[in-house]
Amino acid sequence: MTTPSQTVGPFFGHALPYEAGPEVVPVTGAGAITVRGRILDGAGAPVPDALVETWQADAAGEIPRRPGGLVRRGHGFSGFGRCATDAAGGYWFTTLKPAGIGGDAPYIAVLVFARGLLRPVFTRLYFPEDTAAHAADPLLSRVPAERRGTLVAGRDADGAYRFDIRLQGEGETVFLAF
Fold first, then answer.
1. I want to staple 163 with a disulfide (CB 3.0 to 4.6 A). Which of 9, 37, 75, 132 is the partner?
2. Is residue 146 classed as helix, strand or coil in its secondary structure?
3. Residues near 23 by beta carbon (within 8 Å), at least 6 away in sequence
């Protein structure tokens, strides 16, 4: 007898989102940037009960491997962030712009957990100013040219990076299979 599959979410606000989750670095930290966006469904409506996680290297291209990474115990950068979406599907992170690793352009790995999904979906956020590095990035160069824009953040008037994620439909974000 097989057990029926379960979808991911909705999420309960106990223990998964945590107070410092969106702060990969302190908001006032040197070199801190803001990344924000919205999670949207196939009709373009906000998904108010999703959970977004980010994983990334630091500004020197190193991935943190020390204890206390989830809460930045004394070292200022965790490499990991988690944010629940608000009623408008919005999320935000304060982080550092990562350096590229190997032949990769600088990117942030993004996971989205949302209702209706059997597993989280994985994507990457690339930075708009790194166009030369985009051309050489092994993953991004394999994405059809007309879809690459769904992996590149934009800039808001205040300098923050904007990365909206469309789960399906027209303009669907490119998701990665592992």
1. 37
2. helix
3. 72, 81, 93, 94
Query: Residue 44 — φ and ψ, nearest 5°?
Result: 85, 10
> Shortest CA distance to 19 belongs to which of 64, 55, 72, 65?
72
Beta-bridged to residue 116, according to DSSP, are none
Q: In whole angstroms, what separates CA 93 from the centre of its chain?
A: 9
Do residues 37 and 164 touch, judged by C-beta distance below 8 A?
yes
The predicted-structure confidence for 36-81, as pLDDT tens digits, reads as follows 999 999 999 999 999 999 999 999 998 887 665 555 555 578 889 9
Query: For the chain, how many structural domains are there in total?
Result: 1
The tokens for 116 are: 């209706």
**33: its two tokens:** 């940037």
Q: Are strands 32-40 and 161-162 parallel, antiparallel or unpaired?
A: parallel
pTM, rounded to two decimals:
0.88
CATH code of 66's domain = 2.60.130.10
Burial (0-12, 13-18, 19+ Cβ within 10 Å), 142: exposed
